[in-house]
UniProtKB/TrEMBL annotation:
Protein name: Chaperone protein DnaJ
Cofactor annotation comment: Binds 2 Zn(2+) ions per monomer.
Family designation: Belongs to the DnaJ family.
GO molecular function: ATP binding; heat shock protein binding; unfolded protein binding; zinc ion binding
Keyword Methyltransferase annotated: no
Binding positions for Zn(2+) 2 per the UniProt entry: C155, C158, C181, C184
Subunit note: Homodimer.
Name of encoding gene: dnaJ
Annotated keywords: Chaperone, Cytoplasm, DNA replication, Metal-binding, Repeat, Stress response, Zinc, Zinc-finger
Organism: Candidatus Microbacterium phytovorans
C-alpha cells in the first residue's frame, strides 16, 4: 500500500489547497479518457483514493497516526501482527465495519396530509380523493438509477465491498481499520451513466391522487394511517406510510358529545303549556317529535340511534335535544290582558328558591354545550 503523500507528490505538511492542486494535475494526466494505458489506470485509482483520504480532515488525521510515510501493510512495529490477531478472534477489522455494502434502496419517508370534514362525514363516514405531492418511481429507469441499457459497475477502489481497509500503527501494534469507501459512498458500485430523468435517484417528485375511505366516528386531531401510501424510497425502495390528520368543522345546529349528537329545540310558551307535535331535520333526514304538555325548559328529548357510529364499530349513539322555552318579550294590550287573567286564575306562587336539583344543572350543561 503506497503512501498517500508520495502518491500525490506532496509533503506531509501540505495545505488542503496544495493537495487539491496536486490531485487535479495528476487526474488530468492519468484519466483513462486521456491516458488509456494500464499503468496510468492503476495510478489514477491510487491518486483518487489518496485524495479521498487526505482531503477529509478526519481521515487525514487518522492516517497521520502512523507517524511516518512508509506503508503500514507489513508486520512493522515492535508489537507486530495485532490486526491479524484481532481479526482472528472477532472476525472483522478493528475499529471499522466488515459488513455488506450499503443498499441504494431505502424506505421512503412518511407523508402527512390534512383533510377537513363536516359533521355529516363523521356520522356516516366519507370517501375522499386526496392530492399528495410526493416522490414516485421514475418511469424512465424504474428505480435502477441508470440510463436505460446501462447498469451499476463494481467500484474500482473497494472492489464491491463498500469499505476500504488500512493499517494504522498504534501503541498496541498494527491495527486494521475499515472506513466507508468515499468513491462509491459505501454502496460498492458506481453509476457511470445516471438516469437523466431522475438524476440517478430512481424517483421523481410528482402529484398523485390517493383514494381514501374515512370511517365514521373520527374526530379532530385523529390521524389515520395508510401503510405504503407515502413516498417511494431512493432507488425504488419501499414506500413510506401516508397519515391523514382530520379536522372537523363546527356545525351550526348540532354538536358532538362522545357518540351522541346534541341540539337545542326552541319551544314557544303556548306549545310548552299545551304540548304539540313537530318535525325536525336531523342529519339522517326528517324526524317526528312529540312535545308533551307542560314540558319544562332544560328537559331533554332523546331520539335513539340518530347519533354517531363509533370509530371501531358498534351501535350508533343518540340525538339528544334540549328544550328551550321561549318567553315572549313584546305583547300587545290584548295579549298582556290574557296573560294577566291566566296568572290570576292559576294563582301561581311568587318566584322563590327551590330545593337544589343536580339533574337540572346537568340538563342545562347539555343544552348549552354547543353554545
Amino acid at each position: 500500500m503506497a503512501d498517500h503523500y508520495e502518491v500525490l507528490g506532496v509533503s506531509r505538511e501540505a495545505t488542503p489547497d496544495e493537495i487539491k492542486k496536486a490531485y487535479r494535475r495528476l487526474a488530468r494526466e492519468l484519466h483513462p479518457d486521456v491516458n488509456p494505458g494500464e499503468d496510468a489506470s492503476e495510478r489514477f485509482k491510487l491518486v483518487t483514493h489518496a485524495y479521498d483520504v487526505l482531503s477529509d480532515p478526519e481521515q487525514r488525521q487518522r492516517y497521520d497516526m502512523g507517524g511516518d510515510s512508509s506503508p503500514f501493510g507489513g508486520a512493522g512495529g515492535g508489537f507486530g501482527g495485532f490486526g491479524d490477531v484481532f481479526e482472528a478472534f472477532f472476525g472483522g477489522a478493528a475499529g471499522g465495519r466488515s459488513g455488506r455494502p450499503r443498499s441504494r434502496r431505502e424506505r421512503g419517508q412518511d407523508a402527512l396530509v390534512r383533510v377537513t370534514l363536516d359533521l355529516g362525514d363523521v356520522v356516516f363516514g366519507a370517501h375522499r380523493d386526496v392530492e399528495v405531492d410526493t416522490a414516485v418511481l421514475c418511469d424512465t429507469c424504474e428505480g435502477s438509477c441508470c440510463q436505460p441499457g446501462t447498469q451499476p459497475v463494481t467500484c474500482d477502489i473497494c472492489h464491491g465491498a463498500g469499505h476500504v481497509q488500512r493499517t494504522v500503527r498504534s501503541l498496541l501494534g498494527n491495527v486494521v481499520t475499515s472506513q466507508p469507501c468515499t468513491t462509491c459512498q459505501g454502496y460498492g458500485t458506481t453509476i457511470p451513466y445516471p438516469c437523466g430523468t431522475c438524476a440517478g435517484q430512481g424517483r421523481v417528485r410528482a402529484r398523485r391522487t390517493v383514494s381514501v375511505d374515512i370511517p365514521a366516528g373520527v374526530e379532530t386531531g385523529l390521524r389515520l394511517q395508510l401503510p405504503g401510501s407515502g413516498e417511494v424510497g431512493p432507488a425504488g425502495g419501499p414506500n413510506g406510510d401516508l397519515y391523514l390528520e382530520v379536522t372537523v368543522t363546527p356545525h351550526e345546529v348540532f354538536s358532538r358529545d362522545g357518540d351522541d349528537l346534541l341540539a337545542t329545540l326552541e319551544v314557544s310558551m303556548p306549545d310548552a303549556v299545551l304540548g304539540t307535535e313537530t318535525t325536525i331535520e336531523s342529519l339522517d333526514g326528517p324526524v317526528d317529535l312529540e312535545i308533551r304538555p307542560g314540558i319544562q325548559a332544560g328537559d331533554v328529548l332523546t331520539i335513539k340511534g340518530r347519533g354517531i357510529t363509533p370509530l371501531r364499530g358498534g351501535q350508533r349513539g343518540d340525538l339528544r335535544v334540549g328544550v328551550h322555552v321561549v318567553t315572549p318579550t313584546r305583547l300587545d294590550a290584548k295579549q298582556r290582558a290574557l296573560i294577566e287573567d291566566f296568572a290570576k286564575k292559576t294563582k301561581a306562587p311568587a318566584p322563590h328558591l327551590a330545593e337544589f336539583h343536580q339533574g337540572l344543572f346537568a340538563k342545562l350543561r347539555d343544552r348549552f354545550r354547543n353554545g
